[in-house]
Design brief:
Length: 313
């Protein structure tokens, strides 16, 4: 299926505009009807371009036919500037499958492999994807933390001296870099930890106007943590990336910021509060509606206050 049949666009123009305007396109991870609906509500309310990110584990959870059915049901229009992105594809075959399904953007993550092998695989994916006008993201360096079976590892900062060779050799459209973000809800040990802006600055100088991406960049809103814990949860010590640091990164070629954990927290907070306040309720439509509201509000807040992509359509 062609992604244009689903009203989707690739990321090339949205990234170009984001770099010129010093803002980032939010890439919010989705994994069911509720998360898709909430993210689209946020994008339409804030008039923001958006990337719907789907990991391989989320695709497996939903099933390919169900995902594409949900995307079709969202009635997305090209002028809304929505991309459907495979997040952390771990093989050429996974990226090929996503392209065939109707994804408009794919990430090949061969970052744990030796540099030359990463180039070889990323180049192959770029050649395959570009034949279908699909955007390609690859990664140099690795992020710490864990989110699911495809997103785990230890931190290895991106080496700025590698980026020019990598981008030229692979012909990718955007590059995910490691400057201190991490997967999961436990990204920092204390508030004083900062991203490696020295590395980002060096990379941005070497790749002027080239799209750079931050993974593992959830801010972990403490109001969501507090709500979860107030209504029976047990999450302690979770600390995300400072919002001001993320905004600073958007001024240095970071034009896509991935957010997953924040949406998981919002979903859980909405469900827990709804069930606690109405303990006699057993109607999933009601407590899942509360989850959708919590996710949508979280996305709107981050579009406005972190991404800077509000009213950028």
């Amino acid at each position: 299926m062609k992604y244009t049949d689903l009203g989707l666009v690739n990321t090339k123009e949205m990234f170009k505009k984001a770099i010129a305007g010093n803002y980032a396109i939010p890439a919010f991870n989705i994994y069911n009807m509720e998360t898709l609906s909430a993210v689209m509500t946020a994008a339409r309310t804030a008039h923001s371009p958006i990337i719907l990110a789907v990991s391989e584990s989320a695709l497996k959870y939903m099933g390919a036919d169900m995902l594409i059915g949900l995307i079709r049901g969202a009635n997305i229009q090209p002028q809304e500037q929505v991309a459907l992105h495979l997040d952390h594809g771990d093989s050429i075959e996974a990226c090929k499958h996503a392209i065939e399904l109707g994804f408009s953007s794919v990430m090949i993550d061969a970052s744990k492999l030796p540099f030359d092998k990463n180039i070889e695989i990323s180049k192959s994916v770029a050649e395959l994807a570009h034949a279908h006008n699909v955007s390609v993201e690859a990664e140099l360096g690795t992020l710490g933390g864990i989110e699911d079976e495809n997103t785990f590892g230890t931190t290895s900062y991106t080496n700025p001296s590698d980026v020019e060779q990598f981008v030229k050799a692979t012909n990718i459209d955007s590059l995910a870099i490691a400057i201190g973000t991490s997967h999961g809800a436990y990204k920092r040990k204390n508030e004083n930890e900062e991203l490696r802006f020295d590395i980002l600055e060096d990379i941005a100088k070497r790749l002027p106007e080239f799209p750079l991406v931050l993974h593992g960049a959830s801010s972990i809103p403490q109001n969501l943590i507090n709500t979860i814990n107030e209504y029976g949860g047990q999450i302690s010590g979770a600390l995300g990336i400072n919002s001001a640091q993320l905004r600073r990164a958007t001024e240095m070629n970071i034009c896509k910021i991935n957010v997953d954990s924040d949406l998981r927290l919002a979903f859980t907070a909405g469900v827990r509060q709804s069930l606690a306040e109405t303990p006699n309720n057993f109607n999933p439509r009601e407590y899942l509606s509360a989850a959708k509201v919590a996710i949508a509000q979280t996305c709107i807040d981050e579009i406005k206050n972190i991404m800077g992509s509000e009213n950028k359509l």
